[in-house]
Structure formats: C-alpha cells, structure tokens
Amino acid sequence: MDHRNDTNNSAATYTRFSGGGDEELETGVYTLENEVSLPNGSPSRPRLMWCSNNRRILLAGFTIFLIFCFGFIFGYLVRRSVHSYGSTCPENGTNKNQTDGTGTTVATPTTDEILSNISSLISKTLMTDNRRKFGDVQHLAASNWSNAMASEIHKQWTALGFETTLKKYNVTLSTPGSNVLTVTGLPGLATPLYSSDVGVYTPYSVNMSASGQPIFVNYGRHKDYTLLTETAKYHFDQHSIALARMGKMPLSVMAKIAEENNIKGMMVFADPTDYAPNVDYTNEKTKTSQVFPNTLGLPQRTVVQDTILTSMGDPFSPGFASGVQQITFNQTGFAKIPVISVGYEIAYAIIKNMQAAAPPKDQFPDWSGTFGDYHIEGGTTQNINVDLDVDNKLEQKEITNVISTIEGTVQPDQYVIIGGHRDSVSVGASSPGTGLVCLLEVARLLHFLIDNRGWKPYRSIMLVSWDAGGSGQIGSTEWVEENLSLLKKSVVAYINLDNAVPGNYSFDASGSPLLSNVVYEASKNVKCPSHEKMSIYKDWMNNAVDKTLDKTNPSLSIPGSGSDDSPFFHLVGVPTISPSYTYNKRNIRVDKLPIYNTKLDTSRLINMTDASLEYHEAVVKVTLRILYEIADKPVLPFSVVNYADVLLQGLQLLQTSNNQKYSGLDQLETGINNFRASAVEFTEKVDDAIKNANTDLYPSINYILMSLEKVFLSKFQRQHFKEYRHMMIGPTLQKAYSGIVFAPLSDALEREQTDIVENTILEIISALNQASQLLSFSNLP
C-alpha cells in the first residue's frame, strides 16, 4: 500500500483522459507554489572580511542585521512546515501524525481544520459576477453563447493552476424553427386560435404537419388510452389530434404512447391543476395573483418545453461516441408524430368549447381539475379542427466540454468527478445557471485549499462543464461512451451541480443511498442560512417530505432522468449525488419547478428566491465537504447498510400500492434481508479495519465499494428507458425526473405485465445475491 508523502511538495500533478480511443492516461506537472525547504543543519552565518578597524561598527551592525534576517526566515519556515496541511485522514485510520521539516511530530489536521473559515473565503462578488455572465438569453447548446462560456470557464480554471482541456464532439442537435398551431371551429371566436412563440419548441419532434379533430387524453398514459378504447370505445381515426396535460410522465414517452394508439399529432400543456394549484378559473384575479412572480405557479400563457428524446446522448450514435457510427432517423426510436407545447390558456379555450358530455367520474376518476369538467371531444354538431405544423432543425454541431483535473497523491487512478451542464433549451437561470455558479465557486475554493493550505487530495478530482446537457445529457453521455471501460475502473463517485438552487425552503439531495452518510455529515457541519442557530441537516430533517426506514434521517430523493448524473449512474455504475436548496415540494405537484424549461427561468427567479446568494453559499459549502470527504478518505465513506434499508422501504411501497399478489415479492424481500445482513457484517469489518489501521485491507474494501452499483446494472433494456440500466433506482413512466426504488419492476407492475414482472424480480434477486457475495471478504480479489 502506498502512503501519502507528508512533505510540502512544490508541484502538483494533473491527469486527464486522452482524447483518443485508447485507455492511457496522460500526465503532466504544474507548479503550485515555490516553497523553500528547511536546511538540514543550522543556517550558517556568512564570514565577514574585516578590511580596517574604521569599518568595525558598520560591519557589526550589518552582521546583526543578517542574523536577524536569517532568524526571521528560519522561524517562518518552521512555522509554515508545522502548520501546512497534508491530506492524510485521521478519521479513518492512516498516518495520524505528520513530521515537519525539523523532524517534529505534529497532529494531522482534521476535516474541520482544513475547511475552517470557508464562509469567509466564499466570494459572493465573484458568484454574482458569474451569474451576470450567465445572462438572461436563450442558452442553446453549441451556440455562440455556449462556446463563449466554455472559453470563460477554461480561462478561470486555467488561472487557478488547473490543467484544463476542451473536449469537442460533433453531434446532431435539434434547434428551434417554425412551430405553428391553428385551431378553427371554436364557437364564439371569429378568428382561428393561433400559437407560434419564437424560440419555443419541442426538441427532436419530427418535422411534419398533421390535421384532425382534437381529443382530450388526460395525461397521455397507457391507462388513459385504455379507458378511452375499452371503456368509452373510442377509435382514433377521426379524432386524431391528442390534447394531453404534462407532468405525469416524460413527453418522449407520451409521444410514443400516442403514436402506438394511431394518434397523428399531439399538443401538450401544463395544466394549472399541477403547475399552478392555487389558480381558480372561476376567479379571474387568481390567474395573475397566484402565479409567477407572485408565487412559483405557472402563468397561463407560458409554455413549458420538453424534449421527445428517448435516450441519453446523441440519438444518432447510441452506445458509442459521436463520429464513430451513425444510425438513420427511423432507427432512433423517435415518435413519428408532430408534437407542440402550448400554454394552458389555449388548452382551456379548446376544452371549455368541446360540447360532448364529460366522462363519468366513477369510470374516469382523475380526469378533472382546475378547468372543472374536462370534455373528451367536440359535440356532434361541432367541427373543431386542429392543424399542427412543426419545422424544427436537425443540425450537426460541435459541442464543447470543459475538463480540469487535479491528480491525487495516493490513488491518482481513482477519480471523483464534479460537474454540471451550462446549456438550456430556454434561459435556464435556475437550471442549470445556479449549478454553474456553485461549480465555479467550488473550483476556486479547491484552488485555495491546495495553494494556501497545502492540501493534496488522496484521490484525483475532475471538474467538468458539460455542453448539450439540456438537450438530453449529450455532452456528458458522449464523453462517458468514449471512455466507458476506463471510467468503470476508475470513477468512485459523481457529484452533480445542475438545478442547485431552485428555491429557499429546505436543503435536499438526490442520489445513491451509498452516499447518504456523506451528505448527512456534510450538512451537519454547515449552518442553515435561514436559521442561524440550526445546521442545514436539522432544518432538512424538520422539512423532509420523506424519512429513512428508521425515521432517524431525511431520505435522499431518488434520482430519475434529465440530468448529467444519469450516464454515470446507469451506464458506468457509480454512485451519484445532486445537492440543492429547493422549494416546498408539498405545494408543487410536479417533479420540477413549474417554470422549469420556460422563458421565465431568468435572473428574476433567482432574485426572488436568493438575491443575497445565501443559499448558493450553503450549497457550495455542503458540496465542498462532500467532495473533500470522498476525495480524501483512504476508505471510501460509503454506507451499504443504508442502501439495504432504502431497498426495504421501496419494497414496502410496492407491496402497498399493488393489489395483485406476486409470490416473487416475498422472495425479493428475503433477498434484500440477506443483502442487509451481509452489509451489516461487511460494515463491521470495515470499521474494525479502520480502527486498527489495517491499511492492507483498504484497497480490497474500496474495490468492493466501487463495484457495488455495477452489480445492479441490468443486462437488458427497458421499453421506454433503454439506457437506464440500474435495476434498483431510476425513472418510471409515472415519475421520470425524480425516480423511485425498483423502477423497472414498478413499471411492469403498473402495466400488469406478468411475465416481465416475474423475470425482473428474478434478475433483481440474482443481483442482490451477487452483491451479498461481493461483500464477503472471502471473495476479495
């Protein structure tokens, strides 16, 4: 086992992935600081040449001055060496003491000492400046703005002394063109209802036109179409344009389900029932008083944009980096129907004027809302017609990722990656703007710890700004696909800074249960910005929507889809965490902020929720502690027992929500309990190894912890989430942006697909058995 060098090295190394297809690492050296080492013996006094007695007084004075200078320098160097910060970590058992340059043994500083006074070091001025640079324009991927911001980030990170590179990919992007909706035949309207917002579009919607009578299909789920076809006996030949409300499943899945039901085109809207729950359509004043900027509710004319991209990465090069191979449009899996998103004011005008009887509530229980009764179709005497005309642009464009690396001193081949994307299909001041501001500040603080406190991370740290994340995690996925086999061996965790400050109500974190303890400890050591005498953890615990199985901690939110943690979690199999300060989720009925991916996600929202940047600062401090703990602990601070508890809790929810009994669920419970027993035993042995400083076991322990998530990756593809391979955690048809436990199984149960249910249960049990075996020390490599 290699041990950390405890002296103050004058240079730090960097490592970056080579741009080619091989798996070699390119290493270089850059100077952090020109430090002076103490001499081995006492400093020698210069021999003075006495030329004449008349110079004795002058020379004596000069000699005294030299002695004073040497003494001052000697004392300074001793003090500097004694107080310089190494990166050994007493908390889990290595080199509890260090030796300074004079041979004196001094105590290794604790995490709190290394991260002391971070609050005084955070620059709100620089964060404000970075937020200003982000701006309030549309931040499309590969745009002039995105390229300029990539250059700005490259300049900042290079100035910090980090070796920084630009990694470019040629990918197929969907950009806004002409998207027009025209509705004719509405009673009381002399002119057609028309919608065409400049810059508002549905990324990757097929370019074509469709025309027909509208039919309301509720949330566009499988069960909604089943009700229409089996209960109400509808056929979608004449009524061929679906009107669906968003918020229950990804638009990409809604479009595919519509196509499967012979729908020719679809218009979608964000219903105020979910996106502005305090709006009362019988009270005109609430249409303005209960929406942004007075509340977080969505205004009636604001259009929510979403993509119909069904995959991660460039849809024309699935599974491999762009430029290697291309598939045709018909092979992409896109829905082949035009899709347009509209404001709910237009949707209301259509629904209220359709004169057919409303569906019976006993048969259609959730087909009502803010608009009252939602009529499914027009009356027999009506001739309402909808014309959709989509003309987006599919273009080959060059995207740019910005990558910086700080090499670790003991395990340079193990990486902790922290990153986030900078682009958006709209403005994106909250998502991803707040994440970018926090990422840049974390990078600056890392430089301070290295340059001013002499900290050298145990593992390598990589900072990344992704391009084309808002278009479908394209920049991150292309890089992962290019380096997949190497990343599986070397990445220990990914920290995601995307939608970092969407609100100011409570702290939250979405991620793998493996990282739960790290987040808990980090949040316990940072003061809550809204309660001076309370830690962030305590405030989080008080406001948490869900708590852990034993009710002693707030639950981590379950990661779903739509951000750059997805390729790392589902393709590489590494634990991820996304820290944030968020809004009161009890008051919002959708997975994302209602104005997410709209033109209203601007600096006005940030000024409304965090004008003083106090919550940005809180996220930065918690994130820095998370990064420090993972990068610097010789034994990875992962919690396997917490993982088992999350699985047990998820199984309980499945059993409660499904009336049909599957015998396999009992077997699954047994598998989880066996995994938990192995996790408890493994944790006890890890604690014992740390307590006794048994460093020979550390590499094997870390190997096991780095392998666990990979055991949970399925060998099979899911119908609507092909790249989402994790069996235990992920997005579902009902909950996409924030996922659930046992997502593939939940989808199969929801659709009553008995064969898929049984096969999925068997695969999960097999993975749990493999994980239990992995945790056994007898099977260490």
From the N-terminal CA to the C-terminal CA, the straight-line distance is 15 Å
Sheet bearing the most strands, described?
Answer: 9 strands, mixed
Helix share, percent: 25-40%
Q: What structural category characterises the helix and strand content? A: alpha/beta
The multimeric state of the shown protein is single chain
Task: Report mean pLDDT, rounded to a whole number.
Answer: 85
Number of strands: 23
Report the uncertain regions: 1-65, 70-91, 93-101
Q: Please state the overall shape, judged from the principal axes of the Cα atoms.
A: globular
Tally the helices: what do you get?
23
What portion of the residues fall into strands of 2 or more residues? 15-25%
Taking Cα atoms only, what radius of gyration do you get, to the nearest Å?
29 Å
